[in-house]
Amino acid sequence: MGKRDFVKNHIIICPNCGKEALDHMQECPFCKSKLTPKYNVSNIKLVKRIRLLLWIVLGALAITLIVLKVLNIV
Ligand SMILES: [Zn+2]
Questions:
Q1: CA-to-CA distance for 69 and 31, rounded, in angstroms?
Q2: Separation of 9 CA from ligand 1 center, angstroms?
Q3: Of 2, 35, 49, 57, which residue is most buried, by most CB within 10 angstroms?
Q4: Global pTM value
Q5: Ligand 1 mean position, distance from CA 7 (Å)
């Protein structure tokens, strides 16, 4: 998949002026009308934050288990 294809996959057509805009854009760069992004940027940020938090919790749990094993508590 070339760079052209990548760009092509991320293009939406502005419903107001019919020109091409990228799907992460909130407004058309040509006519400044509101666009509906394919995905919500704040949603992606939230998912990333939750995933990070999950990894921290899992990591802490794993470390706790290893420490307990090493200390022969479990
Ligand atoms: Zn437009």
A1: 64
A2: 18
A3: 35
A4: 0.41
A5: 18
